[in-house]
Amino acid sequence: MESEIQLTPSGRLKHFLSVSGLSRALLTEILDTAESFIEVGERNIRKVPLLRGKTVVNLFFEPSTRTRSTFELAAKRLSADVLNLDISTSATSKGESLSDMLENLEAMASDMFVVRHSQSGAAHFIAESVTPNVAIVNAGDGWHAHPTQAMLDMLTIRQHKGSFEGLKVAIVGDILHSRVARSQIRALNTLGVAEVRVIAPNTLLPNDVECLGVKRFTQMEDGLKDLDVIIMLRLQKERMQGGLLPSEQEYYRLYGLNQQKLAMAKPDAIVMHPGPINRGVEISSDVADGPQSVILNQVTNGIAIRMAVMSMAMSGQTETNTSRKEALE
Amino acid sequence: MNVSAIEIINGKYWANDGWVKFESIRIIDGIITAINSDDPIEPLCVIDAKGGIVCPGLFDLNVALREPGYARNGNIDSETRAAAAAGVTQLCCTPDSQPVNDTKAVTKLIKEQANLSANCEVLPLGALTKALKGEQLSAHASLKEAGCVALSNGAAPISNLLVAQRCFEYAKTQNMPVFMTPMEKDLYEGCMHEGAVSTAIGLKGIPAIAETIAVAQLLQLAKATGVQLHLSQISCAESIQLIAEAKAAGTRVSADVAIVNLLYTHESVKGFNSHFHCIPPLRTEQDRQALLEGLKSGAIDAICSAHLPWEAAEKRMPFVETAVGMSSIESLIPAAVKLNENGELKLEVFLKAMTENPRNILHKEQNTIETGATANITVIDTEQKWVVEQQQTYSKGDNTMFYNEEVKGRVIATLCNGRLTHNTQDLNSKNNC
């Protein structure tokens, strides 16, 4: 169902809402395209004209620094005009509905919406029912998906491990509330890793987490064995207030990644984190800054992945709109 | 429509555990005067059942009429008209209007409006607690005098068990049945079933125990107080087991299921389709099968529409923010035909769960199709295909389960207390009316 909305009849990307339903070939194409854009960032003039004359609107209904700025940089490097809308101070606070607001923006000849929203399914809703002729890129919706984050993580893994074959990967932390984890799990399984594990106390794991195609671990000692990749998730402070965990200290003691725990994984295991990191809550400083950490590579790759996804979705959407116009004529 | 003489031809009706074919059923001044009579009479309206079914009018235990208070989404006239088109002749309307139906005045207003519209017989459910807040008893006796047939707390759980116990004791004193939707409030914080789908798409789930714990508590309270308890909109397999055990032990309890839970599961929510944003939520295939089995075994007594119409804008938002509920009354017959054709639930079981059993729950005399009886009749063409879309339906809500889908099975005509309240055939030109 998710693939139907995201793809053109010829199977090209026209929205990027979720990793779910996309083929290994398409995910690989995203990674390859991103790889080619990394070089752009190293030039003196860091621009390509792929989105020249197009308008990209960053619609962030939730605060974000890193994701929004990498999307903005990515769009600018593709030569697009960029409009940043901080929605919390804008229309919806005046009582205008989301659909009315987006239809207005579409009428201003926008070509792409980059959407972050606190509700799962918000990007789907916009792509399906509100503005189907505008390319929608999901920059994170509720607990559902954060597909560009997952893809930049995949790029980081591929850069360090060469391929996905045979890899054992664990995601550690708040899986229940994590859109990043859901997208990572889908991407890892589609790209063909050997095993995906989740490690967390039961209060932070969905009851049916195995349905996502993962092995459930509640103890770090068991879950970290033989790992090639360890992905640590950020722990939100609200989890303590919500009664899901007793304290940050106990969480760090049991699930925080320090050198001692890291030693249980393979010696060449890499450590990842989508950021922003809580030092001393989910990860120790010496691990975060240590030789096995690839956290800063992830940030660099973020721009390249977003350039790849934006250029691919825009081209798929333009193709769809052109064929629609031709059909009408 | 006031027509003094009606003849329904060419159909079959259910009598003594079997279908009986008939040539004609004649209704004069609202009374069935003859079955298969050759005596000519004029003038006569002829309704051609086209080989379909004639059954006692459907009785729907759970309909939100949206009036007073929510006119944008529906009103008594529009929603009772929809009920007539659905073949419903009697319905219970939920107390969650604005103001809540917790006083005589609101009950009277609803009854008067319903009488003016005259589309079907409306039997209000009075609020069990004031403003449905679950804190204070409402005036059960006054509500009964004004015409409420039972008490209900709508879809609002009563979290204080002491309040619930007193409500049950007081309702028992007034000899009124209590309708409860089993919900354990603290566990009910979600927007869909907690399971594989909610995990995959990242929506907060409502676990089955949010219902089963409440069922267990309510059954204990019913047993302790002796009140007649009716559990509304059961959705989980385990609830059915608890109900069956309580029935076997002699507790005065009955239960219903919403039609949508018999057809769909949480898989329908996969694409964030807000039409399937319901409370109780659509659960697993195993639950759906158990609900169908429960109807067959008698653990579940009735089927209801749980009709809750919303204007389109209320469903045009990200899933969590959309309004909860479905405009489902006009989907009842297509749903029943589909279940029958899938071999999942015989039409006879559906009809019993929407005619005989709801009447028993509310201690109403049965409607029968026999000479001398007042005509409360639904005529159904089980073969007719149609598209469920706004132009074809009467409810103000288009938040239907068969949204723009072609379905099979349609109500041709409805007679409520002898009056023709719905009719799809052109009586004036083709027939002798």
Give a quick rundown of the structure.
The complex is a heterodimer of chains A (329) and B (433). Chain A is of the alpha/beta class. Chain A contains 13 helices and nine strands.
Overview of the molecule:
- The complex is a heterodimer of chains A (329) and B (433).
- With 329 residues, chain A is α/β, with parallel strands linked by helices.
- Chain A folds into two domains: 2-145 and 300-328, 3-Layer(aba) Sandwich (Rossmann fold); 147-298, Rossmann fold.
- Chain A has 13 helices and nine strands.
- In chain A, helix 7 links the parallel strand 5 (168-172) and strand 6.
- In chain A, helix 2 packs across helix 6 (147-161) and helix 6 (147-161) packs across helix 7.
- Chain A starts with a helix and ends with a helix.
- By secondary structure, chain B is α/β, with parallel strands linked by helices.
- Chain B has a single domain (55-361), classed as TIM Barrel, CATH 3.20.20.
- Chain B is built from 13 helices and 18 strands.
- In chain B, strands 1, 2, 3, 4, 5, 16, 17 and 18 form an eight-stranded mixed beta sheet that branches. An eight-stranded parallel beta sheet of chain B has the order 6-7-8-9-10-13-14-15.
- In chain B, helix 1 (76-85) packs across helix 2, helix 2 packs parallel to helix 3 (140-146) and helix 6 (209-225) packs parallel to helix 7 (237-248).
- The longest helix of chain B is centred in the middle third of the chain and has 17 residues, at 209-225.
- Chain B is globular and about 65 Å long.
- The termini of chain B are close together.
- The chains are: A alpha/beta (329), B alpha/beta (433).
- Chain A binds chain B through residues 1-2, 5, 20, 97-99, 117, 119-122, 124-125, 128-130, 141-145, 179, 182, 206-209, 211-212, and chain B through 194-196, 198-205, 207, 270-272, 274, 313, 316-321.
